[in-house]
Amino acid sequence: MTLTISAFMLLYMTAAYLLVNRGLSFVHALPLLGPLLTERMLYLLFFFFFLMLVMSNAAITGISLFRRQETGWHLSLPMPHGSIVIWKTIEGLLISSWGLILLSAPILAGFGRIFEAGPFFYISSLAAVVCLIALASNVSTWFLLMVVKFYRPWWLKVGGTLVLGMVVYIIWQIRDSQTGQFVSSDVATNVRQILGHTQICTHPLLPSSWVAEVVIASGRELPGRAMFFTLLLLSNAMAAWILTALVANRYFYPSWNRALQHSELRNIANGQAVFANHNTRPEFLLRRVTPFRRSTLALVGKDALTFLREPMQWGQCTLIFGLLLLYTSNLRNLGYNYKDPTWSAIISHLNLTVCCLAMSTLTTRFVFPQFSLEGQRLWILGLAPFPLTRVIQQKLWLNLAASTPLTTLLVVVSCFSLKLPLHRAVFFVSAIVLMTVGLNALALSLGTLLPNLRETNSAKIVSSFGGTLCLVASFFYIAIAMTVLIVPTVISRRAASPMPLENIYGLEASAIGALFILTVLIGGIPYYFALRRTKTLANLGEL
Questions:
Q1: Coil, strand or helix: which one is 186?
Q2: How far is CA 530 from the centre of its chain?
Q3: Which residues, other chains included, contact 199 with Cβ-Cβ below 8 Å and sequence gap of 6+?
Q4: Mean pLDDT for the chain?
Q5: Which residues contact 333 (CB under 8 A, 6 or more apart)?
Q6: What pLDDT score was predicted for residue 280?
């Protein structure tokens, strides 16, 4: 199994390097604009890497500090509170940093090939990325402690109001916006107009901008400038650890005490609700209006409450889907001619790929550890008056009911923004529905076949061998699916004369049929074996 995952990782890094190298070579070779676009891509790359690290480290560190019973035991030890927080920050850093290094290694290798750089480029770039990881980990810890210490319930209401207002604004913009046009025929003016939207990513006070400066300077053989920004990153990273210790010594214990008090008050409220009038509880109302069994509703309620009680989980989902919705709703304002068939085909397929990649990240992060999070209490479900296979089926249908409307909405908004024909919209909606089913089934099945029932931290479960295998398998599934789905577009575009609509309908239906078969193979077969293993209670032997 170790050899298999190693081969998967090697194949992924090789394929990523080849694709990135070819794409960067094309961009860098553009007359006049190539070097400028290459540099801006570096700024954007490390800016989003920095945001990803802050979110992932905040989730991992938050679970380790405030959701683990061992924290109370650590606080009783004769050591400063800052030492506990620093250790948990380092633990989260180690868990989340391997993914960034895995993603950035082939990308940096591609940039090094473009710049024709020597060993100094790779050494300085690696040092800069390590410092960026340390800074992001500390920033996430500061943010986490401040939120837990000063959080008030009305924040959630304000946030919900802002999200609702943003959705209304997006709908209004989709309804009234017109196609973005270039302000003139001057190339320099048009490029400045396009790149102006990414100006925030190049702010000189952002650590991600310092990393981009290191990569650019070392690639252009400017060792003095590269060394300056490397030392700037190193000094800020070292100062960040000191500041984390100071902030933790002052705010961690009050924050942990406040979180514990809130948990106890919630437990008391839940205990009082046991003796309340059950005819008014949501579970009773759902039983009256839905055909599901009482046991199924109980399982659904358990999983829903578990998800909603973790702000780091639904917060990440809201942020990712919110950014994607904002992006898809503003496609007509990006400055290209979306009525051109070539651009329309390219952008629509890229949008589908982005939605699938985001879905694969979320399924690996949240769906894969669901079965393992049942933990050593799995035997309770084994004694319940229903088979364990129903638990797996319920989790799959619940995940599909929650994720399919969101991914479908993104694709529908994208098709509406690009003004695609009805048959193309149906094609992309059918594709995203099948991909959502396949990714959810794959993640849940691998999580059932490769469980870690002794771990209560979902981030550590995802960082295990099974989580890595799930992520790599999802990427390969998406790559094969996108190759299948783009075939009708390639055939129709390469035809000597415009193809009749009947032939295009047939090609698209064939592509959807091939995707259905691929989904059955990738998601259905592991799901079948997961049900078989659960039916024989094989997992109970690992408790």
A1: coil
A2: 25
A3: none
A4: 78
A5: 177, 179, 180
A6: 46
- The pLDDT > 70 percentage for the chain reads 76
Whole-angstrom distance, CA of residue 213 vs CA of residue 218: 8
Question: What sign has the CA pseudo-torsion 262, 267, 269, 270?
Answer: positive
336 contacts 350 by C-beta, under 8 angstroms? no
CA–CA gap between residue 281 and residue 276 (Å, rounded): 8
- Indicate the length of the chain as a whole number: 543
| pLDDT tens track for 203-245 | 889 999 999 999 888 888 888 998 999 999 999 999 999 999 9
CA–CA distance, 73 with 155 (Å, rounded to integer): 31
> What is the predicted pLDDT for the residue at 182?
46
* Strand (E) or helix (H) holding 407: helix 388-418
Closest listed residue to residue 111, CA positions, set 201, 38, 15: 38
**Lookup: tokens for 195:** 């790149």
Question: What pLDDT sits at residue 520?
Answer: 93
- Tokens 């802002």 — which residue? 162
Contacts of the segment 434-437: beta carbons below 8 A, 24+ positions apart: 434/512, 434/515, 434/516, 434/519, 435/355, 435/356, 435/359, 435/407, 435/478, 435/481, 435/515, 435/519, 436/359, 436/400, 436/403, 436/404, 436/407, 436/408, 437/400, 437/404, 437/519, 437/523
Q: Rounded to an integer, what distance in angstroms lies between the CA atom of residue 36 and that of residue 433?
A: 38
312 or 273, which is more confident?
A: 312
Rounded CA separation 212/115 (Å): 14
The DSSP secondary structure of 273-329, one letter per residue, reads HHTS-GGGSHHHHHHHHS---HHHHHHHHHHHHHHHT-HHHHHHHHHHHHHHHHHHH
Q: How far is CA 122 from CA 25, 237, 289, 397, 439, in A?
A: 19, 20, 61, 46, 35
